Amino acid sequence: MTLFWISTVVLVVVAIVLLALTLNSKKANNDDQLRDELNKAFYKDRLTELEEETNEGLVENQQDLIDDLKQSLLDDIPNQAETKKTSLSPMTILVPSVVLVVVMTYGLYMHFGGAGKVQDWQEVSGRLPELSKRLMGESAEPMTEDEMQDLTLALRTRLHYQPDDSTGWLLLGRIALANRDVTTATDAMEKAYRLEPNDADVKLGYAQALMMSQDELEQNQARGLLNSLLKEEYVDLRVLSLLAFDAFERQDYPAAVRYWSVMQRMIGPDDSRYEMLTRSIENAQAKMGEPIVEGKSVAVTITVSSDVSLPQDAALIVSVHPADGSPMPVAAARYPLGTFPRTVVLDDNNSMMQGRKLSSLDGLIVRARIDSDGNVATRDGDWFGESQPAALGDTVELVIDQQY
Asked: Which of 158, 282, 316, 396 is most exposed by smallest CB count within 10 Å?
């Protein structure tokens, strides 16, 4: 910021110097002297012409004409009193001009130049180390949404001047992943991967970003990266988790069970995540035709209004909520769009919250949404429907006929 103000002062000084040089270089023209010299030249030329006309016999009274010419020349000589004129000193013009240049330059910048925003930007850029530590969990206080935006701005500023900083690109990609910004996450992770193609964290981050894409080629690339990470001496649990959920989404249930089982062996039965993995394994086994975990279930028959336009590659998301209408689902499932009407069944295997199962609900409502872009965090333009309150064991019916 200091360099900026120094630059503005230099430019203003240059402008003032140019103005002063212009004023000093102005030459005063002596109009009376120029007119006198012109009259003399005209007088001599006229005398020559009269001489020639006299020789040719065209003029009889040459002397009278010469006297008239002399009188005309005398009449054109200005009075000395009239030639006096007042002239302004260059400083009289320079001083107010300098004041005007300075006032207009800084006044207009303060009004239109966004000095406050530039100062805020500089302050945010200086907080990059502090915000990075907050993001990495080195502070007890969670980051606010404004602080996340500040961190993103500071990171982009740093990466503009240091485009070869792979750690910065990785951090920017992680922030974009948290915000479900697929495009930014993929671009940032790709740049980090190009800089550090053998770094395990970079590979994992790039694979996470590619997994969020709807492009099958990018998803295959993500699977290739994850499989290469399986060959490392140390395997991150997130690698197995991504492979398991990807296999489950592709309905490759045996592979999903295999990955989740490996995760269980790695964390042990004392880990709080062990029970959640057990439920995931049981859910996959149920999809393979094996008996599901005993517990109550809810069958949902879903129809779609004739006004609804079903986009290609959309998905159906069904969620079960307490009868009070709480937005947090107790159980949820995602299905390929398929055809309608259709019936789906949700049970304890679809529970979303640890320690609270679908079978524990006294009453419930069911919501269904057609996810058009593959991003569960965005709903603009999606069609949805909601059932009337029901009880476990009932067959619930709902119609998808509303749009966000």
From this structure: 158
Q: Where is 369: in which H helix or E strand?
A: strand 364-371
pLDDT in tens, 240-282: 999 999 989 888 888 888 888 888 878 877 888 888 888 888 8
Q: Give the whole-angstrom CA distance, residue 241 versus residue 259.
A: 7
Domain regions of the chain by residue span: 153-287, 298-403
How far apart CA 236 and CA 244 sit, in angstroms, is 13
Each as own residue / partner, the long-range contacts of residues 182-191 (CB below 8 Å, 24 or more positions apart, any chain) are 182/209, 182/212, 182/213, 182/375, 185/209, 185/212, 186/210, 186/212, 186/213, 186/218, 191/163, 191/166
pTM of the entire predicted model: 0.46
Assign domain 153-287 to its CATH superfamily.
Tetratricopeptide repeat domain (1.25.40.10)
Exposed / middle / buried, residue 154 (Cβ in 10 Å: 0-12, 13-18, 19+): buried
Contact predicate 274/267, CB 8 Å: yes
Cα–Cα distance, 49 to 59 (Å, whole number): 11
CA distance 298 to 348: 10
Token reading at 100? 């005007």
Q: What are phi and psi of 320, to 5 degrees?
A: -110, 130
Q: What is the pLDDT of residues 5-35, one digit of tens each?
A: 788 888 888 888 888 887 776 554 556 667 7
